[in-house]
Amino acid sequence: QVQLVESGGGSVQAGGSLRLSCVGSGFTSSNYHMAWFRQAPGKEREGVAVIRAGGTPRYVDSVKGRFILSKANAVNTLYLQMNSLKPEDTAMYYCAAGRNRGPFVCGGRFLCESEFTTWGQGTQVTVSS
């Protein structure tokens, strides 16, 4: 029913930029909270940025000032503009959406996976030195 498709990943040198897109279908994005997660090799999946219904974008500390989250409700699309990329940004990036309600418990992390019910297939971002 609810589907998300990511695109825009690729390989870039440190300091470069990349823009990820997530196109949703089967729901009205303005009524859902939507987010980007990422998972690096050997690491846990972590939340990167989130925007909830009626709210403003929020970011994990490591990307503040470098990444910009935006949403185009008319075309049901979530974007993540990634600037000043670092090798540690290398990961598979996933789009997520949901309307779950808290409390969410995930060890005090920035964003809990349990908040979201639908996930995209992922798009790979590789940042080289």
Mind explaining what this structure looks like?
The structure is a single chain. This protein is mainly β and 129 residues long. The chain contains no helices and 11 strands. Strand 4 and strand 5 form a beta hairpin. The protein is globular. The mean pLDDT is 95.
Mean pLDDT: 95
Task: Tell me the Rg in angstroms.
Answer: 14 Å
Got a strand count? 11
| Helix and strand run | EEEEEEEEEEE
Strand content: over 45%
The main sheet comes to:
7 strands, mixed
Q: Helix amount, in percent?
A: under 10%
Q: What would you call the structural class?
A: mainly beta
N- and C-termini, Cα separation: 40 Å
Could you write a compact summary of the structure shown?
The chain has strands spanning 3-7, 10-13, 18-25, 33-39, 46-51, 58-59, 67-72, 77-82, 91-98, 118-119, 123-128. The protein is mainly β and 129 residues long. Strands 2, 4, 5, 6, 9, 10 and 11 form a seven-stranded mixed β-sheet that branches. A four-stranded antiparallel β-sheet has the order 1-3-8-7, with no helix packed on it.
Task: Please outline the helices and strands.
Layout: E1 3-7, E2 10-13, E3 18-25, E4 33-39, E5 46-51, E6 58-59, E7 67-72, E8 77-82, E9 91-98, E10 118-119, E11 123-128
Parallel strand pairs: 2-11
Antiparallel strand pairs: 1-3, 3-8, 4-5, 4-9, 5-6, 7-8, 9-10, 9-11
Task: List key phrases describing it.
seven-stranded mixed sheet, four-stranded antiparallel sheet, 11 strands, 129 residues, globular, mainly beta
